[in-house]
Amino acid sequence: MKYLFSVSIIAVSAVSSPAFAQDASDLIAAPPRIVTTVVATGSETHLDQTGQAITVITQGEIDAVQGPDLTRVLERAPGVTITRNGGLGSFTGVRVRGAEAEQVLVLIDGVRVADVASPGGGYDFGGLFSGGIGKVELLRGSNSVVWGSAAIGGVIALTSREVNGIEASAEGGSHGSFTGDATAGLVLDRTSINLNGGYTRTDGISSAATGTEPDGFRQWHVGGRGRFALTDSLALVAVGRYADSRLDIDGFAPPTFSFGDTPEYQTTREASGRVGAEYRSNLLDLNAGYALSDTRRAYFDAPAIAAPNYTTQGRSERADVTGTLRPVAHVTLDFGADSERTRFSTLFDAEKHARLTSGHALLGYHDDGLDVAAGVRIDDHSRFGSATTLGANASYRLAPGLRVRASYGEGFKAPTLFQLLSDFGNTGLVPERSRSYDAGVEYGTQDSTFHAALTAFRRDSRNLIDFASCFGISTGICTNRPFGTYDNIGKARAEGFELELGLRPSAVFGVQAAYTYLKATNRTPGAANQGNDLARRPRNALTVSADWTPDVAGMAKGLTLGADVRLVSDSYDNASNFTRLDGYEVTTLRAAVPLGDRLELFGRIENLFDSQYQTAAGYGTYGRTAYAGVRVRY
Length: 634
Fold this sequence. Notes:
Elements: H1 2-16, H2 24-29, E1 36-37, E2 45-46, E3 53-58, H3 59-65, H4 71-74, E4 80-84, E5 92-96, E6 104-108, E7 111-112, E8 133-140, H5 144-147, E9 154-160, E10 165-173, E11 177-187, E12 191-202, E13 217-229, E14 234-248, E15 251-253, E16 258-260, E17 265-280, E18 284-300, E19 310-325, E20 331-346, E21 352-367, E22 370-381, E23 385-399, E24 402-413, H6 417-421, E25 432-443, E26 450-469, E27 484-506, E28 509-522, E29 540-548, E30 560-568, E31 571-572, E32 580-581, E33 584-594, E34 599-606, E35 625-633
Parallel strand pairs: 6-9
Antiparallel strand pairs: 1-2, 3-8, 4-5, 6-7, 8-9, 10-11, 10-35, 11-12, 12-13, 13-14, 14-17, 15-16, 17-18, 18-19, 19-20, 20-21, 21-22, 22-23, 23-24, 24-25, 25-26, 26-27, 27-28, 28-29, 29-30, 30-33, 31-32, 33-34, 34-35
């Protein structure tokens, strides 16, 4: 019953809006606005000139969602599911089309930010918040031709917000939560610079679902980006980000060693940045630079203990050059080359390192509604050798605003340094590989008055790396490894379809929906779990959102009311499909009202109906919470 009531909030808003009396022909005739993305080719590309499935979320939508939790923004895109081990700041995995969280490439201002010291080498979204983020781009499907290792499930690119002036916000609410963010920018003829910073803290909830002691979190972060034009064609660019976090965690406490309240905590320091140069001309665009990403974690048994019981440090240093050549009309050649050196160490593992050198080319043709691109990439890894990756996509405009699109992409993920060289490592590992197919039909663009898209997809993965037990085995890869080691032992398939709808008939009302049906199964021949659903992959996920600015006498001028409904079906928490995770519904109500041109008050209620649910078995989630804040622009 409460599910129906949740959805009715949006239905009532729709009926209440006089905009729906508008003739449908007006919606079709409204011209779309141009949306661009970098995740398709590595360079700025119009969204309707690629056959790949891409979603772009802009700064206005991020602000409308409210709050520091970036996952609430990401869940508006199709194909995305989230798992979190507790409250805000806890480990947060983002899966795209059923891929592992570690198989999604994440970039912040063009810098790859994976934690190369972690066993899976993925990115933890628990330490990344929406403050300071101005744009989110999501490519769904394998695209290692352009992006190389880790782009099996997709690519998420986040860009810092840019302002010309000052923008600041602060909010507080349930569980002693507070978030403050500020961005300051200056834009001149040849120079632009933006600086951002923020602080987030919360008393939190118990990470263990059975626990009673809140696990708190705090983080401060700073970042910035700048551009200085030396000439009309040549510019110097730089970006940087640093975040310092502390998170209380739960563990297994004696004497029963059951999962519950413990005094443990972890600290994390993340630093990333890039310096480079850009060249732009009618014939050739070039972007060259040097990037660094460093993640350091320390784990403590209790606050009274000065020395950590475990530490990790991972760093990647990357030199790269990418470009776009336009040799003749309608033809483009996107290309790139890079060399990345990664290293990791732990309290128990001495420093180990590896190098990955790559080159790629993507040839495109664009004319009269037809856009076609195909490319190849070659990677050479110092530990396992070379890998070749292919990809192609096409888009064709059938009528104004209506197009069909399709893509084929191959993906690979290099074994992590932990999987190769730790005490549990296996130097005989080869990359995880995937083949991804999708096809769809789309009307309008994501930023136009009316938008609808239907996409069918499938991804087959092989050579998946998993931990293999060595108990009772003393030969082969288990030699000198009494507990176990990593091995290429898995195959999987993920298939389904995505539906996107967006309707913005007037300036006062908009509604959008993103639905995904996903069947992700283990296809490892002879495995005990062959045919089972992959863990934490719900079959159905739906997000419906609506925003209404009522033009009604007696209401505050400019008041915006919004609602978000997230529906997720049942899934399993483990590969054996023994532990079930029940489906759930979470509804958020939002409101914002301007006070003049520079001041805005906002607030929201999350999990309106106080749903009890888990995204990872044994870990707590928030019940009903409320927040209020203020935003200033100058």
